[in-house]
Amino acid sequence: MASRLQSTLTEIGEAARALRSGRLVAFPTETVYGLGGDATSDRAVAAIFAAKGRPSFNPLIVHVSNIASAAQFAELSGKAQAVARRFWPGPLTLVLPRRRDCRISLLATAGLDSVALRVPAHQIAQTLLMMAGLPLAAPSANPSGRLSPTTADHVLAELGDKAEFVIDGGPCQVGVESTVLSLLDDRPRVLRPGAVTAEALSGLLKEPVPIETGADDAAAPRSPGRLMSHYAPSLPVRLDAATAEPGEALLGFGPSAPKEALNLSPTGDLQEAAANLFAMLRRLDEPRYHSIAVMPVPDTGLGIAINDRLRRAAAPRK
Ligand code: TXA
Ligand code: MG
C-alpha cells in the first residue's frame, strides 16, 4: 500500500527520490491528482499504463516546471509562447510538435510526433518537479475510464497498491482535468474543455478556437479524454433530470434543486460545481441506487467542461 506523505519539503524530497529511481508517486495538481513517473523512462511510463489499465495508444500528459523546460521537449511556435506566457502555470495542456532530440519516452506519447505538456500551478506539484528535476508523465490517478480523483483518499482507495507514495494536498481547487489545446498546425483547437475556456484562448489568439472533442474525429489521435465513455461512475448516469425517479440518486445544481439532492452548488456557482463534480459522483455511486440522475448545468464557461465530463459519464459503456 502506498504511504501517504504530507507536503513538507522533507516528504516531497522523499517522493522526488522515488521518482528519480523510477517508481510512481501520486501528487495533487490544481485540477485533479496525477499518477506521476519519470517521463524519460520507458519502464516508469510502462508502469503507469499498467497501473491504470490504460490502453497504450492513449498518450499521457507530461508535466514540466516552466516554459524553458517545455522548450527542451517541444517546438513552441509564436502562438504557443503567447498562450504559455498567459496561462502557465495553470490548468492548460498544450499539444505541440515533439522536438527531434526530445528525451521523453516514445511510450508516453504513444509513438506520435507530438507531445502534450503542462505546467501545473499547484505548489506541491511545482516543488516536486523542481526537486525531481525530471519531466513527469502524470495521467489522472484513477483506473482507466473511471472518475478522476480530487482527494488523496480517492487515490488511495483505487490505486493505493500501485504508487510508492501519495502526497496529500487536500481537495483539488479546479476539480476537472486541464483544458487540452492542440497547437500542432495553424488551426488551434480544444481537444478537451477545462477551466481555461475556448473563449479565453480565442480572445488571446484573436482567432476562433473551436472545441473538437469528437471520439470519431479521424484527424486527431485517439486519446482517452476523447473516448465517448469515460469519467464514469459504476452506476448509469441520466442527464437533464428534473427530479429523481424511485431508486435514483439525485445530483442537483443551483437554488431550485430539491432539498434531498446532493447539490453541486446551491448558489449556482460553476467553479464550486466543477470542484465538487467527481467527489459528489463518487458519493452517489452506491449500490443502494440503480442510477444517478443529474440536473442540467448551464453550458457556459466552466459549465462546458462539466457537461463534457457528464456526457461521457452517461455514454453507453462497452
Ligand atoms: O488535469 C490534467 O490534465 C491531469 C493532471 C494530473 O495534470 N492529467 C490528465 O492526464 O488528465 P490524462 O493522461 O488522464 O489525460 C490525457 C489527455 C488525453 O485525453 C488527450 O486529450 C491528451 O491528454 N493528449 C495527450 N497527448 C496527446 C497528443 N499527443 N495528442 C493529442 N492529445 C493528447
Ligand atoms: Mg484521465
Instruction: Extract low-pLDDT stretches.
Output: 216-222
The ligands found in this model are: threonylcarbamoyladenylate, magnesium ion
Rounded to the nearest angstrom, the distance between the terminal CA atoms is: 30 Å
Helix vs. strand class: alpha/beta
- Strand element count: 14
Cα-based radius of gyration, to the nearest Å: 19 Å
Helix amount: 25-40%
User: Could you tell me the strand content as a percent range?
Assistant: 15-25%
What is the number of helical segments per DSSP (H or I, 4+ residues)?
Answer: 9
Shape: globular
Average pLDDT taken over every residue: 94
Report the major sheet: 10 strands, mixed
The arrangement of helices and strands along the chain is EHEEHEHHEEHEHEEEHEEEHEH
* Biggest sheet: strand arrangement: 1-8-2-3-7-4-6-5-9-10
